[in-house]
Protein 1
Amino acid sequence: MFRFLKREKSQKISVDIVENIKLLKTIFLNDETIIFRTYQYNKNNFLLIYSDGMVKLDYINNILESILNIKSNEKITIHSLINSLPSAHIQISEDFDEVIGSILTGYAVILIDGEDKALLIKAKESNARNVEEPPSESIIRGPREGFTESLLINLSLIRRRIPHKDLKFLFKTIGRYTKTQICIAYINSIASEKIVNEVINRLDNIDIDGIMDSGYISELICDHPFCPFQTIGSTERPDVACGKLLEGRIVILVDGSPFVLTLPYLFIESFQSCEDYYVNFIFASFNRILRLLGFILTTFIPSLYISLVNFHQELLPTPLVLSITAARNGVPFPTVVEAFGMIFLFEILREAGTRLPKPIGQAVSIVGALIIGDAAVTARFVSAPMVIITALTGITEFLIPQLTWAVIIYRFLILFLSSFFGLYGMFFGILIMFIRLLSLKSFGVPYTLHTISLNPQDIKDTSIRGPWWAMKYRPIILGAKNIIRSRSQKTKEKIELE
């Protein structure tokens, strides 16, 4: 249900326009953006009220011109105005709270003396950003459109790609002060009713002052708020959102945010890219395997290096042990301190490069890493092998941006255990991480289900991407009503005969 900021008892509009004006001016006291215009025409008094900056002034002028064109012997009423005004978005309301909310959201409101109803005319000024390529998900091949901050534009981008009657948009308003509009999008003939109802229930239970971005919603409705692994996906790309909808997932759009939420979200999706579906399936599968390898390397390489150098030197070739020992000659800090310090320094450079303006940020990241790394080795603060390990750890981290925060936390945890117990500590940390992964759920769907499976049908779109002609079924794990994605000619003929 909708959550509006209302009085304990809803107040009705009075037939006395003077009383209505007095009440409105009391409510909007000291707010100079609310414009009151009182007119008298054909012996009728009427009030036009709107919020300056929220409406198109040309549209306001057209409304007044249409009213003045009413015949001089005709009385102005609500119904006569509806027939005269050049707008397709007109509502009639007798609720004072709805009138106030409409004024604050870009509607022009007309009150007529003697009428206990108001006319709400949509005249909102559109200051939306143009549709551009999303900077957070750049690709070489594929659509270049990205979501904007306008909810209506985002919905049109989805509707244009899926012009089907089963595509449903369910609207809600969340935020006692911001009254942010939320839209739940799903395909009725594919999505699971159980998951759709669960999403609606969780959104209904949100009671908060305001929503500024879809990240608020993600944190408020996720299954495991204290887990670093995200169980709700996000994207800036309409093609990705539509692809999720066609698989039976649900998309949540928030007015004012270019990031839409997709759910349920599985662990294996962190290694998938939208471009995987636009290129040859062999190259797409190779890239996914690279991302999986990158996740393994960025999480475990520092702890593996510490374990082998400090506790299990017998597992390394003798020339390599001698080379590492020679490189560490003169370094005053233990290997563990080196590892923690260098990785922490890399994360500082990464964060600085992200927050600074793009040209400066790139210079800080590259120059900072080169100069600091070279100076640290020259000054014998750290050894050259540790710089190599840190660089490899940081580069492979960029392969999986969706898992960055989880990787950082578990990397330090496993590194800490390895510094005390060697490989035993490392494997214990890995065991903790996998137990946590296996215990997660996203809206009732196991987070790691079918991540490792021997069933050919289950692995066609997981760590590898099968050819489109082989992916005939949607993921069964999402509870989709219709699991058939594509049919062969023989299957079509059989269905037609039946």
Protein 2
Amino acid sequence: MTLLVIFINSIKEKAFHVFGTSKRSINMYREVEESQTLLINTQSKILAGQNKKVIKLGFGQSPFLPPKAVLETLKKAVHHKEYSSVQGDLELRELMAKFHKRHNGLEVEPDNILVAPGSKILIYNVLLAFEKADVFIPAPAWVSYGPQAKLAGHHIIKVPTSFEERWRVSAKTLNKAAESKQHKASILIFNYPGNPDGLTYEEQELIELAKATKSLDMLVIADEIYGLLDHNFSHLSFANYYPERTITTTGLSKWCGAGGWRFGAAFLYKNIEPALKKALIGIGSETYSCAPTPVQMAAKTAYKDYEETKAYLDYQIRILKQIGNFCADRLGASGIRVHSPQGGFYLFPDFSQHKERLNNRGIKTSAQLCQLLLKETGVALLPASAFGFEDEYLAARLAYVDFQEPGEEQDFDLNTDCPNIIEGIEKICKYIGR
């Protein structure tokens, strides 16, 4: 049985065409749209294949290569084709536990770490472990949380946020959302530094949120995949404030520039219910089996030498912080509302103040805005509707990653190394302001 095409219990009848002939039959399959992030990447590649210049600010893929030592380890490990355990290599899990304890005080036992081909499947498997649950998802939120909760058969409760609140979930908004509960089990999924907003939480905000989640007896999935790219080197794991029921997810895709390697990890809480842990391992054994063994061996190198990895992170963050602040400052100067980034490589510009002008040009949804922007200027963004907003909310995610990593002997220079980003930002400002 696959994850994306499965038979459903309640089968609805409808008419459809098969190979051009009309035939009355039944719909046996789940309706699952392609991930918006992958779709925009595909569309950009199609345009590029037509010799049209595309400034790729839509797909959030790190432009940095993994550290040399990590690359070399992967090359040397390529002959390892054996399966590992479902949980992952024990030495690797020990290294990860030590690394995160030193980096931000996150405490986890190696036996409570699950390694998988990406954190995406781990989040989904946590959802699959519950028969019925209320899944609380902030808006904006990463594009896959909602579809995954829907696939798992859960009740989705949107937690609204606002530009003025810096897109943060608060104890107040969470308690208000909880009034719509339908099931005993409650799960909050939240991600920080955030995708799509690039923002993080202050300690007091985490303390208050932890009190609310505890009082509501929630399981929290803290997606901290961008935690190591906190621009102020001060990421605070939610598990430190709500250790009772927080599962932290992370991986190599963002901070190590290895998205296509598919490596993720989930840090389970200390006294996790045996039945839940057993379910997670069981689901893993029936879906992904294990993370690729050569990639696990490369990950050991990534997590082994903290000082060496920290220097690599510092190098990235200096560059990302400079680019992100430039983009935010320039957009803000042109009258586009946006918060300066605090982590990762995203901005979430809000164009709603230009709504009347855009509406007069026939642009009434964020999807239309992004489609026309791509068609008329070659700049790819991802619409706010992909992140949990109503179609009419005019905002978009901007991933400032379309640049070349400078060579070893070169210092980073914004004008020299980021011509596409500079051009793209100027085109956005001009397009919105005209």
Protein 3
Amino acid sequence: MKDVLEIIAKSLVDYPDEVDVKEILNDDNTVTLELRVAESDMGKVIGKQGRIAKAIRTVVKAAASRENKKAAVEILQ
């Protein structure tokens, strides 16, 4: 899941070297993925009305369900 998110994010932004994905395992057996990108790339990752962010979350949830896990994506500065 972390790899999927990292590949998607790096393909969207102008500064792929600044993409950072942190995987956090929660107590309730879910995984939270924190995505950090350069400040100038935030708009590209979120998209108009959050459409790209929603699509990213959908793809990551699908990848997680293949591993019988639940995942959430947080986009941070």
Protein 4
Amino acid sequence: MRTLPFRLASLTQKCTAALLSLAALSTPLHLNAQNKAPTINISDGVVKMGLLLDMNSLYEDVAGMGTVTAVKMAIEDFGGKVHGMPIELVYADHQNKADLAGTKAREWFDTQKVDMIGDVAASATALSAVEVAKQKNKVIIMSGPGTSRLTNENCTAVSVHYTWDTYALSAVTGRGVVKGGGDSWFFITADYAFGHSLEKDASEVIKSEGGKIVGSVKHPLNSQDFSSFMLQAQASKAKVVGLANAGGDTINAIKSANEFGLTKNQKLAGLLVFINDVHALGLNVTKGMQLTEAFYWDMNDETRKFSRRFFERMKKMPNMLQSGSYSSTLHYLNAVKATGTDDTATVMAWMKANPINDMFVKNGRIREDGRMMRDMYLFEVKDPSESKYPWDYFKLKATIPAEQAFMPASKSVCPLLKK
């Protein structure tokens, strides 16, 4: 809605009353430092967001329609409009193909007038989409992918890595397992950007804690047969077998480890395990496993309220990717509302300048490299006897402050942190 100029001195009492009534019905504006409402300049009269997702493969359960649902909930909770202008959402399946993700991102920015892309589950697809967003000077906010490259050597001024990354998984889970006596590791790693980053980051943490890496093996994305990898892991005699994979690959690897009896003599460390994975495998298989999370549905009244609403729609509890997408959508929309524009530089500046406080994160902040800084949690999967109701799976072992969980600025090569 455009703001019309009025000469206040000439307003009659009747006009004043009418204007006050109109203001009460309108979307409230965030005032700037000079106590003036922002000039509204939203391109095309629409705030359009796009989600790039895995809709039909190994990450379908941990992202997929669950992420779409979470973002729709955020748009609804926001009110469905910004300054009277509609919020639109589109989504597409990138099929875990980097070239397809890049092509779709370019199409959306060039011809579909998309203002922001979200999620982008999977690291290779995210790296591709980020490059396009950088070229087109458009906002991209990622809750799905994990590679720490997104805020390190591949950082950009237009991208936000919102929920987690491979460095945090390594710092929290890796350090916790080593301190518990698991000082020799063998990795079973997904052979693409995410797996490579996770193994690299975890190896550095393990070595820094006095542990050693005795070997590793790479497996193709979306593997069904892990038998040969398990035999190599057993032969290594490592105390810990680290799973540097995710989604369906993690589920299949854990199943195979139990079938081969690996867990009788070696400890299994799932570096990225979602509540969906625990639900699919059951507590008898996953009990005692330690894992790193940014969100658990049963932590407090706020998380339970959101999660039960989500459950009504999806018939499962949300994970950190889905709840992170909800939170990041609200933060983006609040930025558009506060600034009155969808201009990339303006929106990014507001998002970095303002803290994030919602059911997903308290006192979150976006660092100059795009890393959203927040506390992370180390959980242990409950024994079946400890679980009192459906989806009661985790017990909190430790809360890790953001500065300890994520890569310190001093270690990063991102030039945005060197200014």
